[in-house]
């Protein structure tokens, strides 16, 4: 019996060592490419980041310029997309977690949300092009914001539902026992307990759409000049990077490297913020 236990013990030790070594190797493999990408961006783009990048518009070939109009356009469309997608996503996630316990609507909504979550962004761009751009006859910032909001929406729905489901049922029962209606329990008790996780999901969703290029090529396109008119074509950093990187002009390629580094640092900063400041703590019951 003792010999059998020793054999089983060593088999488990060997299995544990092998699986740990494989896990460490895969993590090192992934981190190698991540560090390689960051090093490439810093080595090629850091020297071209200057004050002009933040104070001048995108230039014609051979002229000095920056990314001011592209940075403004990106932030503007991301802000509008977040304002469109967040309330819809939070309400839909709340329905799934708090009210959709029975019936067919909640499972159907989850199924559609999962499809939307895994849909390629270029497909969403083509959809908005057909529904909005083709019908009104021109590219616009509104079309770009709508496309980005469709990418934000499933992320927020999934995050909201998951975070609300983590709130202990005893909190809801205690509030209901004091006579609070369900909407007050959800608004003042459940939301308050899950706000850290919900804010984390929101930041991660914003980080995801900040670097999207494909949907904006079919919706907002680009604008060489400063524009705050959402009814017309609008510049964005991601589209400028795509167009300038493909151009034969070195000054445009330098701006593309600078823009790629800026957008990477922005997304990296949002992810670090989401995982540190808004880290969900233990939920007290």
UniProtKB/TrEMBL annotation:
Main localization of the protein described in the UniProt heading: membrane
Annotated InterPro entries: MetI-like, MetI-like_sf, Phosphate_PstA, Phosphate_transprt_permease
Location(s) in or outside the cell: Cell inner membrane; Cell membrane
Gene3D superfamilies listed in its UniProt record: MetI-like (1.10.3720.10)
GO molecular function: phosphate transmembrane transporter activity
Transmembrane region(s): 21-42, 75-99, 111-133, 139-157, 255-274
NCBIfam families hit by this protein: 3a0107s02c
Family named by the database record: Belongs to the binding-protein-dependent transport system permease family. CysTW subfamily.
Protein name: Phosphate transport system permease protein PstA
Gene transcribed to yield this protein: pstA
